[in-house]
Every structure is written in structure tokens, then in C-alpha cells.
Amino acid sequence: MTTWLVTGGAGYIGSHVVRALQESGRRVVVLDDFSSGLERKVPAGVPIVRASIADRAAVAEALRAHQIDGVIHLAAKKAAGESVTMPLYYYRENVGGMVELLAAMNNVGVTKCVYSSSAAVYGTPGENPIHEDARLAPESPYGETKVVGEWLVRSAGLADGVSWVALRYFNVAGAASDELGDNSINNLIPMVFRALANGERPQIFGADYPTIDGTCIRDYIHVSDLADAHVAAAALCESSVSSEIFNVGRGVGSSVREVMDTIGSVLGRDIDPEVVARRVGDPPASTAATSRIEEALTWQATHELRAMVASAWSAWQAYPPN
User: Fold this and answer.
1) Contact 243, 162 (CB under 8 A)
2) What is residue 33's predicted lDDT score, i.e. its pLDDT?
3) Using one digit for the tens of pLDDT, what is the confidence trace for 154-208?
């Protein structure tokens, strides 16, 4: 039985990955600095290491003490807009943290890594769906740090024999259970819930894009499907010396207005969104080509948009954010 360290394992995505790993029969240890994660999201009995990934000595000690076989690295700052105003902070946290993590792994001899990347590496795509070999043109420091993270883990593979997989997430939504919901202030669905809770109209940022209804199109993936992709990636690292990059999405585009309509349907009322100015850097459309991950990992998303919205709403009602 292998043991995996999940950095950021008390966060929204990380907590789902922890449970999926447990269900697969693997042992799990969580490393988190709790700057955004919540201890209540970590299952009882899972060891918790309270540390930053930038603390090389603490990470190395955790790897040794818990006899870790591989690392699933999710701990990072992830707000693209914030990264534009705080670029050095994002480079220090995301790139500097990755350097320290890989150094700790090398010091201890841990040679398996699943890296949390992002569709932000593509920027505005030349065509949709986006294939993994598309040109990388990130449009925010956040996206740039994710590209550099991929370079770093690839270099560790070449230099140190690390078996690795990078997963480029598209738009993550939903919850496997109420206590694991997404309380982010930056993701569309919780942003809508927050606006409604405050008696405000949800906002659509631009309705004049060259899309079917004028609003941006994104590929939404249920967090449970994403968690299962991590387990499949971990299994690949265990069974071979891997050096792979995969998109993780449904390969289905949903417009912002479609998401708003689905939220209204789930809530049973008209949520009356208002159209405001475009945000800088929002590509008109971004959807994943998923054939590579489906073939290599025998993985496929199974949850539809309505299931994502319904589970997110249930979680929001059960655990409303402060």
C-alpha cells in the first residue's frame, strides 16, 4: 500500500482528493498551512502536518516521518486577478514553494509527483477544444507560475528520475458532500450564491463576446471527477516512470448565461443577473480536449452541469461562508 502526501489537502479540491485516495485503498497524509484550508475538511484519522511547502526542512521531515511514496501538490495561490496586482507574491508562493518541495523530495528520495496545473497556462486559445500541445500563452502571473511549475517538475523528472503527471484543470465546481463545498470568492458559482445572499444581482462580465449567447464559455468539471483523475494519475506514477500532461475537463462548453440559468432552475427562481463590463483577460471560450486523459488513464468525467450546481447549492446552504 502506497502513502501519498497531499499538499493543500485541507482545501476545496485537496479535501476531495484526500477522500478519493482513501477510497482507492491508499494511505494519505495532509500538509497544509491553513491559510485558506479548513481542518474540518480533513477526515478523522488522516495525519496533518501544519507547515508551508516553502519550509524545506519541515516538508522533508514529513516525507521521512510518514514514509511518503509520492506527493500530490495542490498548495498554491490561485486568483488570476489578484496575481496581476501581486505578481511577486504569486511567484514566491507558487514557484518558490515548488522549488522547495521538489528539493525536499530529492533530499528524501521521493520520486512520484502529481502536479496541480491549470488551463490558465493556455491564455486565450487559438482554437477550441484546446489540446495539450497547444501554445502556452498565460495572461496572468498566476498562469505563468503554473507553466513554470510544469517546467520544474519536468526538469526534476529528467535530473532526478521523478515520475510525474501534470493535470491542467479547467473550471472546477460542485461538491461530493455538503461539508466539502467551495467557498471561494473567485469562482463563478459561489460568486453567484454570495451575491444572492447579499441581496445583490449576480454579474455577467460582458455579453458581447463572439459566442452563441454573447457570454464567455467555459468547461466545467465536477470536483469529484477531478479527484478521481488525481487517483488515476497517482496510479500511473506508481506503475511506470511517467512524464505526462493531461487536460481535466468534460470537453463541453457552458456559457455564463447557461450557468446562471441552471442556478436559477436549481434554486427555483429567476436570479436576474445583470450584465456589466468585460473583465480584462477573459478569453471568449475555453474548452478541453479530453481524448488524451481518457485514453491514457481510462478516466472520463461523469457529472453534468446541473449536478455541479445542485451539489454546490446544497453545500452552500449547509455550510454558509462567514
Assistant:
1) no
2) 97
3) 999 999 999 999 999 999 999 999 999 998 888 999 999 999 999 999 999 999 9
Supply the residues annotated as catalytic. Answer: 142
Put simply, whether the predicted model's pTM sits higher than 0.85 gets the answer yes
* Nine cell digits for residue 95: 514557484
Query: 309-312: long-range contacts at Cβ-Cβ below 8 A with a sequence spacing of 24 or more?
Result: 309/173, 309/174, 309/189, 309/259, 309/262, 309/263, 309/266, 310/266, 311/174, 311/175, 311/176, 311/222, 312/173, 312/174, 312/175, 312/181, 312/182, 312/189, 312/190, 312/193
Per-residue pLDDT reduced to its tens digit, 215-253: 999 999 999 999 999 999 999 999 999 999 999 999 999
Domains and CATH numbers, the chain: 3-172+220-248 (3.40.50.720), 176-219+251-287+303-318 (3.90.25.10)
